[in-house]
Amino acid sequence: MNDRIALKLLINRIPTQKRKVIIGLFVSAVFVLIIALLAAGIVYGGKSFLPISRIDVTEIPNLERADILIRAGIENQTYWTLHEVQVRTKLLAIAAIKNADVEKHFPDRLVIRLETRKPVAMAMSHTSNTGLLQYIDETGKVFEKGKDASNIYLPLITDPSMHNPYAGDQYIPSVTVLMRRISSLSPDLLSHISEIEIDWKIAGAYKLDLYDLIVYLRLSSIRARMRAELDDDYISRMLLAVKTVEEDSRYTTNEIDYRSNDPVFIPQGGSR
Predict the structure, then answer these.
(1) What CATH code would you report for 119-266?
(2) Is residue 264 within 8 Å of residue 257, measured between CB atoms?
(3) CATH class of the structural domain 48-116
(4) Which of 246, 240, 196, 195 lies closest to 221, judged by CA?
(5) CA distance 132 to 134
(6) Which of these, 31, 117, 134, 244, has the minimum number of CB atoms within 10 Å of its CB?
(7) Short-list 80, 117, 123, 67, CA closest to 96
C-alpha cells in the first residue's frame, strides 16, 4: 500500500507537460508493439491469415480456369503473401496469353483480366508420329490451340526454317509480316486457302530473307505460286485464274505462277 502511495506522489511531482509526454510515449510504444505482433503474425502465420477466397478471371477462351490458377501459383496464397507482379509474370509465361492485369482487393478478393492471342493461322508440330496443331497470332507467336478451338478455316503455315513449332516459339520478323497480312484478309477469301508454304529464295549457298508463297486451295487440285504481299484483291484475282484454268479443257496443270500480273500456267509434269 505504501508503495502505491509513493508511486502516486512521485507521479504528482512530475510537471503536467512532462507527464503528457511520458503518457504519449507509452501509448506510442504500445501501438508499435501491437503492429510488430501483427507483422509477426503475417510473416509466420500468413498462410492462414486473410486467405484469397474470391478469384474473378475474365477473357479465357480455350483456356481452363483451373489450369490458369495453378500455373499462376495462386493456390494457398493469402492477401499478404500474394504479389501481383509475380502472378502477372507467371501468367505471361502462358503462350496463349498476350497481356494480364492482376489486382488485389482487401481482404480476400483477386481480379485477373486476361487478353488472349487471336489466331490468324496454324502450324503443325510433331511428337513421335503424332501431329499437333498450334495457333499463330499476328505477331508470329505460336500458342496452344486449345480444347474448344473451332477455327477450321485458318490456313496451315509450312515454313522450312521453323521445323517443329511449339507453343512459345516466335517466327522471325519477315514471316511475322506475312502473319499481319493474313490477319487483314477477308475471312471469306481466307476460307478458300488450306495451306501456305513459304518458299525461301536461295542465292548459292545462302538463304536470303526473301520468299515466295505456294498457296494450296481447299477445293482445287491446282496450287498457286504467289508473292508474299497478300491482299484481298490479289487473292481474288488468283482464285479467278484458278477457276478459269479448271473450266478450260485446253489446260492440264496442277500449278499456276501468279507472281506477275499475268498468270503463267505450268503444264502437267512441267517445270517453272
Answers:
(1) 3.40.50
(2) yes
(3) alpha beta
(4) 246
(5) 6
(6) 31
(7) 117
